[in-house]
Design goal:
The protein is of the alpha+beta class. It has a seven-stranded mixed β-sheet with strand order 17-13-12-30-31-32-33. Helix 9 (411-424) packs across helix 10. It starts with a helix and ends with a strand. Residues 49-138 form the Phospholipase D N-terminal domain. This is Alkaline phosphatase D family protein. InterPro entries: Metallo-depent_PP-like, PhoD-like_MPP, PhoD-like_sf, PhoD_N, Phospholipid_Metab_Enz. It comes from Paraburkholderia edwinii.
């Protein structure tokens, strides 16, 4: 097998060992392919997507760049230089590698033999052009005593909405590295929402080379060229380039690197949830090409599981970071979209009893094996358990795609409260009169649901109102109006807000929490994205137990720019096609953000929620405390101005976790 074929099928990771002596700045290594940069050029060569580094270890790091201007056929020679000084007078690597058209001229070059806990500088050179300078860092040696570790957590950076000023604001943060918990790109473009978030003027609309159109007028990435276009477009932003150039990144994917709410190689745009293996493989390859990761990829493997991205990192004696893949191995959602029997759908605001019954049916059919109800898959779950049980560090951090926190709502109680406020036109607390009014409505709805009485007669309310001297015509008009707000009785139950999260995979969550409890594994904190909201709370051993026991903590970071959970909720409720006026009464889409209140009041383990936010998190670890700063961003101004680095962060909320507890303390505003 020749060198080109070997690189093509082995995943194109090249490797250089750092020298123990200072190298000359001229010349290069002996690994250059035969083709020259000039001969391979299809135009002016450049590094227009910047540089990046990632997956640091105590003795190594992965460097990345992409050469623009290749002819699409021949390799391009690229020099790689690594130095202990920013002026590159102290080179420890000075070599040449080939950027291949097979991999879209992306380079993933691992440097080994580095010193632990050390800052290095790197750059790439080709055709007389030098890239921007990158700065990276190696991890502390295993077991090294650390007093502090600081890093940022980011997620959900949709090109098409809001802004990316966060990346400039982050340049002022004193951190060692960045954790990205998914949705680095968004596969669907051209989405039009009734309430359209403001768009970053630095982010023009773009087209995919191929793409597949959806009925709503949007297009989703389908081919390898489409997915490569997404990454090239996102990496063209100078703010994201500066972020990558300044810190190493440890990243996993979520759904949008392939397809919204995906599982394995299945899309969820349609109720058929069709397999799209070729599309999934294209998404896998593009992610592999463009992310500076040290992961296993096998292009010769014809399945969609041709890549393994779950892996772990150890930071001295202070922290272990376990990064998981919660899309490629997960089972189908518990409730199929076409049979959910729920006017909202199978994944959002789904009756908990429906999800529980579907999960139990699968468990029974599998003799209680977790395989058909798993998010991690059997192999990764065992690996996760091994990582947690063998970690000797104080903190065990979990890079986690979707929230572990139960997010439920008692829709019957919420609706009776909402109907009371609708009649009385008040959102204030209930006095004696209001309480009697509420009791009458509650009794009427209880009887109506039990007897499937449609419309609800509201006899108790009628009697109570007439007893107070209200006009009968007015009372009947009120009753008629209330009936227009009552949903199908099937949803007047405890609802799960999002069954695409761990709430839809409860059996495996129970198993993981039981494992941590039974093995006395403490100080486990999940670092989560996806929700497009800030949230912090305690993960219980069993959220349905009479007295749940705290096991670990989940810290959810809002998206960098993606549409907030509250905005999505408002858009959904206000869409007349959904006929969800009742949901708007439960958590009104106008006025104060009552979605926050609905979540915290229905979930005692949820210490904090801000569902109308974009932002990022900064984590500070010490042996005794984990401190998380939720940085909430200011929006694009009414005149279209994007915040500057100095004023991008509108507010910060601080939450802390003390070692050997599973409790979250939230600072006052």
């Amino acid at each position: 097998m020749d060198r080109r074929t070997f690189i093509k099928w082995s995943g194109f990771m090249t490797v250089s060992a750092a020298s123990t002596t200072i190298l000359s700045a001229c010349g290069g290594g002996d690994d250059s392919p035969s083709s020259s940069s000039a001969a391979a050029s299809g135009g002016p060569l450049s590094f227009s997507q910047g540089v990046a580094s990632g997956d640091p270890q105590p003795d190594s790091v992965v460097l990345w760049t992409r050469v623009s201007g290749g002819d699409g056929i021949r390799d391009v020679n690229v020099g790689v230089q690594v130095s202990t000084t920013a002026d590159f007078t102290s080179l420890v690597v000075n070599t040449t590698v080939a950027a291949s058209a097979d991999w879209d001229y992306t380079l993933r070059h691992q440097i080994t033999g580095l010193s632990a806990n050390t800052i290095y500088f790197y750059r790439f050179i080709t055709g007389g052009v030098t890239s921007m300078t990158g700065r990276t860092w190696t991890l502390p040696a295993s077991g090294q005593a650390l007093t502090q570790l600081k890093f940022a957590v980011i997620s959900c950076q949709d090109w098409s909405v809001n802004h990316w000023a966060a990346f400039d604001a982050m340049q002022n943060e004193d951190i060692n590295f960045i954790v990205h918990v998914g949705n680095y790109v968004y596969e669907q473009i051209g989405i039009t929402l009734p309430i359209q978030p403001a768009r970053d003027p630095q982010h023009p609309a773009f087209k995919l080379p191929n793409g597949t159109a959806l009925p709503d007028g949007s297009t989703y990435a389908t081919t390898l060229a489409d997915y490569r276009t997404l990454y090239m477009t996102y990496r063209s932003d100078p703010r994201l380039q500066r972020l990558h150039a300044n810190w190493p990144m440890i990243a996993i994917w979520n759904d949008h690197e392939f397809s919204s709410d995906s599982w394995q190689d299945h899309e969820t745009y349609t109720s058929a949830e069709a397999e799209q293996t070729a599309r999934r493989r294209s998404a896998n390859q593009a992610w592999f090409e463009f992310m500076p990761t040290n992961v296993t990829f096998n292009a010769a493997n014809t399945s969609f599981q041709n890549i393994q991205i779950y892996r772990s990192f150890t930071f001295g004696n202070l922290a272990t970071l376990v990064m998981t893949d919660e899309r490629l191995y997960r089972a189908a959602h518990e409730v199929a979209e076409q049979v959910s029997g729920n006017p909202v759908g199978s994944r959002y605001f789904v009756p908990k009893a429906t999800v529980d019954a579907a999960e139990q049916a699968r468990l029974t059919a599998s003799n209680n094996a977790l395989t058909p109800v798993s998010m991690l898959g059997d192999t990764q779950r065992q690996w996760w358990q091994d990582q947690m049980s063998t970690a000797t560090t104080t903190w065990k951090l979990w890079g986690n795609d979707v929230s572990l926190l139960r997010m439920q709502a008692d829709m019957f109680a919420a609706l009776t409260d909402a109907l009371t406020q609708t009649v009385l036109q008040t959102a204030a607390g209930l006095g004696t009169f209001e309480t009697q009014f509420h009791t009458a409505i509650q009794a009427d709805l209880t009887a109506a649901v039990a007897g499937n009485l449609v419309p609800a007669p509201f006899t108790n309310l009628d009697t109570f109102a007439r007893g107070l001297g209200f006009d009968e015509d007015d009372v009947q008009a009120t009753i008629a109006a209330l009936n227009t707000l009552i949903p199908p009785y099937s949803v007047l139950t405890t609802m799960l807000m999002n069954a695409d999260q761990w709430d839809g995979y409860n059996a495996e969550r129970l198993s993981l929490m039981s494992f941590l409890t039974n093995n006395s594994i403490r100080n486990v904190v999940a670092l989560t994205g996806d929700l497009n909201a800030f949230a912090a709370g305690t993960v219980m051993n069993d959220f349905d137990a009479a007295t749940p026991v705290p096991v670990m903590v989940d810290l959810v970071t809002a998206g960098i720019s993606s549409t907030s959970l509250f905005t999505s909720y408002v858009t959904f409720v206000n869409n007349p096609a959904n006929h969800l006026g009742w949901l708007g009464k439960v958590a009104p889409a106008t006025g104060p953000n009552s979605l926050d209140t609905m979540l915290t009041s229905n979930n005692s383990w949820l210490a904090y929620a801000d569902t109308n936010a974009q932002g990022y998190s900064v984590i500070t670890l010490t042996p005794g405390t984990l401190t998380c700063n939720f940085r909430k961003l200011a929006p694009v101004s009414p005149t279209g101005q994007v915040p500057t680095a100095a004023n991008a962060v509108a507010s910060t909320r601080v939450v802390t976790v003390q070692a050997n507890t599973a409790e979250v303390t939230v600072s006052p505003m």
